[in-house]
Design a protein that fits this description.
heterodimer; A: 149 residues; alpha+beta; 3-stranded antiparallel β-sheet; 5 helices; globular; B: 392 residues; alpha/beta; Aspartate Aminotransferase, domain 2; Aspartate Aminotransferase, domain 1; 7-stranded mixed β-sheet; 12 strands; 13% strand
């Protein structure tokens, strides 16, 4: 069901934890859907020098969080804002269709943290135009359950 | 070989060797069509009758009250649609519960679209219906009560006998989906007062793809599969002889030493429940502590999500299931866990471990030893857990 890369990032997630006195913190998702991602950034000279995450969610939610943190570490804030969910999913060698929403959540977590950074420092990023960190990100596919009878 | 612990007996069971041995000749040697008049057919007709007799005995039912189907889901569909169709001129109201298997729920929803009216009884925190609510739900146009015997997720056993009595007093047909209960508890259709009962072979160490519907003599029900004279014109289609033979053998074995089987399962179940709730903080049992299936353990583990848990358990060789939305591919967590009042996050963190005949005490110890560090690891990753640790 999951690629080897997804399983690798799930079993050995990179950058798990918190950053004390982080320059930016963002949280997305909701318990209703079963995924919550929280991301902490340390930003120096417009560059993300450190990133940590905590995730409540399924295997792919943890793997996409881990991959997203790897992809933005060392990048400029602007570069991080251009991280797309597709890029995260591709870097993991793909996700099952019903799990694509996890990659969307990872992208939103990064944006949400940077939104927090922008607010704190009174910065403007055109990439955040129209972004609402409190939006209910419901990107689930409404599939059908496997029956068991 | 890597250790493997199967704790998903409610999903399906391995077939017993005796069952397989009994079935094998019917694939190639004794292969006749039971409807044929020649000896090839006749001997298979006899094999089916033998199986029917064996199963009927386990239920204290009449031999002519057992009708083989393609499985539990078909039996549920037949019971509900068959009664709805037969009694449509009498009434169009059906009573069921919120925690039925989807084979019942989706069939009821289908009938709602066809103009039937369905009452879904609520359950308490243990998953039990309220008998008074059932009585209050009965109307002059109620034609069917369909309430499961044992819940497939949380293992709660409903007061079937009491429900049967109420159904009889009100002259309403009573169906129960006893797929999970069969082979785990003793049952007598007359004592229980059921008119229709769905069973499945693969939950009792028999083959997949075979089930049955018990139909009390005189119960008004239409067939849903037309096309032949099989099963006394009520369920068309050439009989799945090897599977029927296997079902019979599995039923015989299940009830040979039912008391020993269930007390052994209860011992292992309670050991697992106690072991996990003692070793892991923020864990609670879902379902009723005693009115539950002998082999069912369902716990909620706070602050973590079920699919992650299943993946990690799978890595250490433990196979079980969860009520998390992520394991089902749908948006919502299990309807059963929501019905007993769990919050979304707690329902997402549920784990179902179901014990069976091949489960050993070592297996239980293995899970009690291996689950706590996995839970701790996932909690360390969870943003929900930091709040608890931080005390705010």
């Amino acid at each position: 069901m999951y690629s080897e890369k997804v399983m690798d990032h799930f079993t050995n997630p990179r950058n798990v934890g918190e950053i004390e006195n982080a320059d930016a913190v963002g949280q997305v998702g909701n318990v209703k859907c079963g995924d919550i991602m929280k991301m902490y950034l340390k930003i120096e000279n417009d560059t993300i020098v450190d990133v940590k995450f905590k995730t409540f969610g399924c295997g792919s939610a943890i793997a996409t969080s881990s991959m997203a943190t790897e992809m933005i570490k060392g990048k400029t804030v602007k570069e991080a804002l251009n991280l797309s969910n597709r890029a995260v999913a591709e870097a993991l060698d793909g996700l099952p269709p019903v799990k694509m929403h996890c990659s969307v959540l990872a992208e939103q977590a990064v944006k949400s943290a940077i939104y927090n950074y922008a607010q704190k420092n009174d910065l403007y990023f055109e990439e955040l135009e129209g972004f609402n960190p409190d939006e209910d990100h419901d990107h689930h596919d409404h599939g059908h359950e496997d029956e068991e009878h | 070989m890597k250790k493997r612990v199967y704790l998903d007996y409610s999903a399906t069971t391995p077939m017993k060797k005796e069952v397989l041995d009994e079935m094998l000749p019917f694939f190639n040697v004794q292969f006749g069509n039971p409807s044929s008049i020649h000896c090839f057919g006749r001997e298979n007709k006899a094999a089916i009758d033998k199986s029917r007799t064996t199963i009927a005995k386990t239920l204290n039912a009449g031999v002519d009250e057992i009708f083989f189907t393609g499985g539990g889901s078909e039996s549920d569909n037949w019971a509900i649609k068959g009664v709805a169709s037969a009694l449509k001129n009498k009434g169009k109201h059906i009573i069921t519960t919120e925690i039925e298997h989807h084979a019942v729920l989706h069939t009821c929803q289908f009938l709602e679209k066809e103009g039937y009216d369905v009452t879904y009884l609520k359950v308490d925190k243990y998953g039990l219906i309220d008998i008074e609510e059932l009585k209050a739900a009965i109307r002059p146009d109620t034609i069917l009560i369909t309430i499961m015997y044992a819940n497939n997720e949380i293992g709660t056993l409903q007061p079937i006998k009491e429900i049967g009595k109420i159904a009889k007093e009100n002259k309403i047909i009573f169906h129960t989906d006893a797929v999970q209960a069969y082979g785990n508890i003793e049952m007598d259709v007359n004592e229980l007062g059921v008119d229709l009962m769905s069973l499945s072979a693969h939950k009792v160490y028999g083959p997949k793809g075979i089930g049955l519907l018990y139909i009390r003599k005189g119960t008004k029900i239409q067939p849903i599969i037309h096309g032949g004279a099989q099963e006394r014109r009520r369920r068309a289609g050439t009989e799945n002889v090897p599977a029927i033979v296997g079902f019979g053998k599995a039923a015989e074995l299940a009830y040979e030493n039912i008391e020993e089987h269930s007390s052994r399962l209860i011992y292992l179940r309670d050991k697992l429940i106690n072991g996990l709730t003692e070793k892991i903080p923020f864990v609670h049992l879902n379902g009723h502590p005693t009115k539950r299936l002998p082999g069912n353990v369902n716990i909620s583990i706070e602050f973590i999500e079920g699919e992650s848990l299943l993946l990690m358990l799978d890595m250490v060789g433990v196979a079980c299931s969860s009520g998390s939305a992520c394991t089902s591919g749908s948006l919502d967590p299990s309807h059963v866990l929501m019905a007993i009042g769990l919050t979304h996050e707690t329902a997402h963190g549920s784990l179902r471990l179901t014990i069976g005949d091949y489960t050993t005490e070592e297996d239980i110890d293995y899970v009690i030893e291996n689950l706590p560090p996995i839970v701790e690891r996932l909690r360390q990753m969870s943003p929900l857990y930091e709040k608890v640790k931080g005390g705010n």
